[in-house]
Amino acid sequence: MLRNYLKTTIRSLFRNPSNTFINIFGLSLGITCSLILFLLATFLLSFDRYHENFERIYRIVHSANDQQGSRVFGNGVPSPMTDAVREEVPGIETIAFVSNKYSNTLVAIDDNNSGDRRYFEEREGVAYIETAFFDVFSRAIVKGSLAGFGQPGKVILSEKLADKYFDSTNIIGREILLNKEQTLEVVGVMEDYPRNSDFPFELFISYSTIKKEYEQNGWGSVSSDDQIYLLLGKSTKVENVNERLAAFKEKQFPNDDQDLSYFLQPLKELHFDTRFNNYRYTTVSDGNILTMVLVAFFILVTACINFINLSTAIAVKRSKEVGVRKVLGSTRKQLVRQFMGETFFIVFLSIMFSLGLAELLLIYINPFLEIDLSINWFTDGKVELFLLSTLVLVTFIAGLYPSFVMARMKPAVVMKNQFANARTSAVSLRKVLVVFQFVITPFFIIGTLVLVGQMKFLKESDLGFKMDAVIAIDVPESESQQKKTLKNGIERISGIQQVSLASRTPLSSSISVTDIQLDNDPQDYYCDIKWVDENYLSVYGIELTAGEGLNAVDTLTRVVVNEEFLKVARINSPEEALGRMVHIWNRDVPITGVVKNFYSRNLRMKMEPVMLVNGMGNARTLSVKLSGKDFNNQLNAVKRTWQQVYPEYTFEYEFVDEAVASMYESEERMATIFTFFSSVAIFIGCLGLFGLVSYTTNQKVKEIGIRKALGASVSNILSLVSKDFMMPVVIGFVIAAPLGWYLMSQWLQNYQNRIDLDAGVFVVALVATITIALVTTGYKSLQAARANPVDSLKDD
Q1: Which residues does the UniProt record annotate as the domain ABC3 transporter permease C-terminal (predicted)?
Q2: For residue 668, how far is the Cα from the chain centroid?
Q3: Non-local CB neighbours of 570 within 8 Å, separated by 6+ positions
Q4: Each residue of 743-790: pLDDT tens digit?
């Protein structure tokens, strides 16, 4: 029996090669895309879940009201909060303070104490941590131990860095020199972090090494570099800890009117909560994960719809086969089993093809997304479960209805060739399914247009400063005089317009917030602090609206604020702000200038109040304004000057406009992924529509021949064939438009600065959908319209 079913299945596949190709190719594409999106979604959802107690690990974050009353969010905390939480908040099993260092770090290794050093640069992954960090997070110490790590001058390396720095296995007890001034002893080697981690750390320095510096910071000094992680007790309730954290605001900021709030963020949300971001600035919103799942679902559903439509359409062609089988004694159950078996065979073949296609696509997707997806067999069972579920569900969904349609055929009706007129229910279902396909098509088009439009808006918006031909160079932590020597040397290079030393470029991924007071008002105001020099405004073209900029001194004698600061401080005009005294870091200094607003963080956030202050010692970035079009000579001269001042460091730079654009790389990648898979979904839908139109024209070939013989024009025939498909297109769009508007409006809420979702998007989507439908149906319709009616009528 099984052998007979298999023969019948293979014979049926070869009897209808075009339909077989469309079904297998469409299902293979659908399963491939669904598998890749499944792998991507499971990879993203696995971030930092390998920690033993990840469900009890939390990060302290904060939020406050801006001047419009909207909530703004941050992940930085004042360093004194660590001891305060440790002493005053019960139910905490372990607490760990982490200070991440983004500045360029120079590591020197002296192998034989001969003074002949090897130098390495670490541009990220350097952090000052407490020993408790390893109690909160599950990372194994593979060499050495944590004993003594709490003392100053101790360091733990990742396996990667240990192999990079030292050739021998005798690593414990060796010394490294940090930034040419700080000697650290290696006490341990920690296993590397996996790819699915938001923690980029590789070089762990004991927090006690810099604790005295941090003890000078007050509750008003907040940097996104400084964060606190907690491991809650098994019976501790999050709401109870949040209540205790809220009490710190009342105690430390009694005059705050911005509704400052400290609360816990679960570790499992670190990769998904875009309000707070992570160390790598690669958060992916829950909405994006849901979008992947929906796209995968719709792609698979579209492929199933193709199968159902084509299977029911060719039911007429197979009606005599069914009639003969019933006359020879086949029961309905046997026929259903046969047709379900055919579907199972097609789906199985499609899965086999999809596995090879998925492996091929991953070769290109992995480097594009900078991840390492793979189809891992027999590891955690997720891939096997997905493929088995797909095989069963797609077989059931795609095969059940066509099987019942063909199994219910009555031999008497079939033998009289009346089945084509009798199966109106199958025709009605096909129309419903075509409508559903044309809900999916305009929805994906609307989504793609909004995504592309928002990405273009982010990249082309006016940020309030100019960055053309400006390069940014990370400056090592060194003496101010050394930085000044570099700056002065570059200023003397021919073609260099201006040079500025500052803590950061105008728009950067990290901020440093502090509280200040105005005049004798005890009210606290918060703003982003940037340490800059006298050239900063001119290098970036930031326009003064009143007063004057900073001078060339390296001490805090005056400050410059932006217009957003005036709104926060309720100052009516730039002129009114001049001369107002700012109390900051136990000093009173005057506001001497007001500049136009510029974005200090990316456009996901609102405009921030910014204060510019003098401070060469805090300079991390050297900004160089180039001139002309050929920058090579200038860059080579800058490199030579750099090597004279910092011979141990590698000269690296980036253009500021490219650095700003890179802040949206994760969104751009997700937009590209969405666009690609949306296009695949639309293509699969078109493939099925093409097959359906092909079959429809073949069924109407004699009708078309008669109409042409009676004088019908090509346009009349095109209208005849296309009318059955144009109405589903319109109905589908009417359903898709409000759905697309609602979902994309919700997605745009993730951005404080966003495009308007106007009618133009929907007009373009409608035109594109109709064009796709016409092009898909047009070829076969035109072919049928131009056919010689004699050929179609000569049999009669």
Answers
A1: 294-411, 676-789
A2: 8
A3: none
A4: 899 888 888 889 998 899 999 999 999 888 888 877 777 776 666 666
Closest alpha carbon to 752 in 274, 282, 283, 263: 274
Which structure tokens are listed for 436? 């559903």
Find residue 594's DSSP bridge partners.
546, 561
Look at the chain and count its residues.
796
CB-CB contact of 491 with 622 (8 Å): no
Average pLDDT, the chain: 84
d(CA 367, CA 381): 25
What is the DSSP track for 531-577?
EE-TTHHHHTTPPEEEE----S-SS---EEEEHHHHHHTT---HHHH
Give 33's Cβ-side CA count (13 Å radius): 29
**Which ranges constitute the DSSP H helices of 282-331?**
286-313, 319-327
**Environment class of residue 724 by beta-carbon count within 10 Å: exposed (0-12), middle (13-18) or buried (19+)?**
middle
In DSSP notation, 653-674 reads -EEHHHHHHHTTHHHHHHHHHH
10 contact partners, CB below 8 Å, separation of at least 6? none
Query: Which residues, other chains included, contact 329 with Cβ-Cβ below 8 Å and sequence gap of 6+?
Result: none
Which DSSP category does 55 fall into? G
| Chain Cα centroid distance, residue 607 | 22
Backbone angles phi, psi at 141, to 5 degrees: -90, 110
In the 8-state DSSP scheme, what is residue 209? G
Q: Which residue, among 722, 739, 726, has the nearest Cα to 781 in the 3D structure?
A: 722
3-state SS, 410-446, equals CHHHHHCCCHHHHCHHHHHHHHHHHHHHHHHHHHHHH
**Tokens at 301, concatenated:** 């559903």
User: Beta 261-266 vs 117-122: how paired, if at all?
Assistant: unpaired
Residues in Cβ contact with 428 at an 8 Å cutoff, skipping those fewer than 6 apart = none
Are the C-beta atoms of residues 536 and 598 closer than 8 Å to each other?
no
Helix (H/G/I), strand (E/B), else coil: 14? helix
Q: What angle do CA 459, 272, 235 make, to 5 degrees?
A: 155
Q: Please state, as a whole number, how many other Cβ atoms lie within 10 Å of the Cβ of residue 710.
A: 8
What are the CA-CA distances from residue 430 to residues 314, 403, 717 (Å)? Answer: 12, 15, 22
Q: Give this prediction's pTM.
A: 0.80
588 token code pair: 């009173």
Residue 108's beta-bridge partner residues?
Answer: 119, 177
Closest CA to 450 of 198, 747, 653: 747
Per-position DSSP letters for 15-58, written without gaps between them: HSHHHHHHHHHHHHHHHHHHHHHHHHHHHHHTTTTTSTTGGGEE
The answer to whether 700 and 784 are in contact (CB under 8 A) is: yes
Closest by CA position to 744, among listed 484, 326, 465, 449: 449
C-alpha closest to that of 634 among 788, 441, 499, 535: 499
Dihedral (Cα; 303, 308, 311, 312), 10-degree rounding: -150
- Token duo for residue 526: 């918060």
Residues 6+ apart with CB under 8 A from 301: 436, 440
Report, as an integer, the average pLDDT of 24-41: 91
Report the alpha-carbon angle 661-664-670, nearest 5. 135
For residues 64 and 67, give the distance between their C-alpha atoms in angstroms, rounded to a whole number: 10
Cα–Cα distance measured from residue 442 to residue 760, given in angstroms and rounded to the nearest whole number: 14
